[in-house]
Amino acid sequence: xxxxxxxxxxxxxxxxxxxxxxxxxxxxxxxxxxxxxxxxxxxxxxxxxxxxxxxxxxxxxx
Length: 62
Fold this sequence. Notes:
By secondary structure, this protein is mainly alpha-helical. It has a domain at 3-43. The protein is built from 2 helices and no strands. It has helices spanning 3-14, 19-42. The termini are far apart.
């Protein structure tokens, strides 16, 4: 581990984050997991899929 991580851990041990900051981080993680679950179980919407697939601009291999 880098010494900066040890300094960061020491700072967090001396002054932990506030409850509102922890709630904000947990809310963001919960929203990300919710979006992942919806996309995993129901699939990606057809309307949000770009046209072309991204491979049309590549040079063909010889």
